[in-house]
Amino acid sequence: FTLAFLQSVMQRHVHFHSMVNECFESDVGFQQSVDKGLVLVVNSVKNSAQLLAIFANSLLEKGGSVAKALGMGRGAEEALEHVITCLKYVLNRSTFQEHYVRLLANRLISDTSTSLEVEEFMARCLGEVCTPDFTSRLQRMIADKMRSFEQERQHEAEALGRGGVLHVLLLTAGTWPLPVPAFFPVPLELGNRLETFSEFYQSKFKRRKLTWYLDLSRAEVRGLFLEKKYDLTMSLQQLLVLLVFDAPLSPSHDQVGDSKAVTVAFISEVTGLSSSTVDAVVRSLVRARLLCLSCPPPSPPPHT
Predict the structure, then answer these.
(1) Exposed (0-12), middle (13-18) or buried (19+): which is 100, by Cβ within 10 Å?
(2) d(CA 53, CA 101)
(3) In terms of Cα–Cα distance, which of 149, 47, 36, 158 is closest to 92?
């Protein structure tokens, strides 16, 4: 799906329905014929339901290609309205709903949504063509995001001066499309803050249970290198690995100039992450130039 295709469908929608209204006195039979033709056009695109959800995500996500092209003015609002009109002709709307709710969850959890007001506008518009259960689910997800701001504000007021800022998004179980939470070792630097928030939350909602999805979290870190400060955003897995290098030197470490060298096996043992996860995280940090790989010296050739 592209903006050009969507605009083309809308041009034909407006043109032929106007023709029916003006020339055939809004005859129901002609209107149905126009709609049948548009159904064929829209569904001639393979995976049209999924592609329409991805297109909507590009409109609603910060930095999305379509959002950048249109900006946040009337052009973006019209494009969202076009998505709704085009969705009326999609046969497999359940596929659209499945992908849309997953992409909405990603936007809200990662804070990449353009605004909650736009998300609410889109949820109301989707109510015209989607099932009531689906639109109710969207509204509950957006409400969770809004309530989290208030709970976070109250907690930070009580926990003032206890370390770094902790941002928590409270998700209602059964509403969000989330997998079973994966095992994640809690960094010591974070453990006390999580415990403090859990105590705060349980004091307000005694019958509710908190389950932490730390594998979906991210950390904002300030680093110092050559007397320059750098603000970094990373996953908690990446933070766990970097904290290994921030610890004092021990006999398990090799000194390479002013740097510290450790093995993947050692990082896995210290952090509790699997070797495959550590390997993937280390490679991502190497690509970001936060770590350097050092290869062991080659083994001497065997004596002949």
Answers:
(1) buried
(2) 9
(3) 47
Q: pLDDT tens track of the chain, all 304 residues?
A: 566 777 788 888 888 888 888 888 888 888 889 889 989 988 888 888 998 999 899 889 887 666 555 555 556 777 888 889 889 999 999 999 999 999 999 999 989 998 899 899 999 999 999 999 999 999 999 999 999 988 888 877 766 555 567 788 899 988 999 888 777 778 777 788 888 888 888 888 888 888 888 888 888 888 777 778 888 888 888 988 988 887 765 555 555 444 567 888 888 888 888 888 899 999 999 998 888 877 654 555 555 4
Give the Cα separation of 143 and 113 in Å (integer). Answer: 14
What does 91-146 look like in DSSP terms, one character per residue? S-HHHHHHHHHHHHHHHHHHT-BS-HHHHHHHHHHHTTTS-HHHHHHHHHHHHHHH
How close are the terminal C-alpha atoms of the chain, in Å? 66
Task: State which amino acid sits at residue 81.
Answer: E
Q: How far apart are CA 241 and CA 58, in angstroms?
A: 32
The structure tokens 């592209």 sit at: 2
What secondary structure does DSSP assign to 169-226, as a single string? ----TTTS---PPPP-PPPHHHHHHHHHHHHHHHHH-TT------GGG-EEEEEEEET
Residue 41: count other Cβ atoms within 10 Å of its Cβ.
Answer: 17
220: phi then psi, degrees, rounded to nearest 5: -110, 115
DSSP state of 61: B
Tokens 């092209």 correspond to: 69
Instruction: Report helix angle 28-43 to 3-23, nearest 10.
Output: 170
Structure tokens belonging to residue 70 = 């249109």
Count CB atoms within 10 A of the CB of residue 160: 7
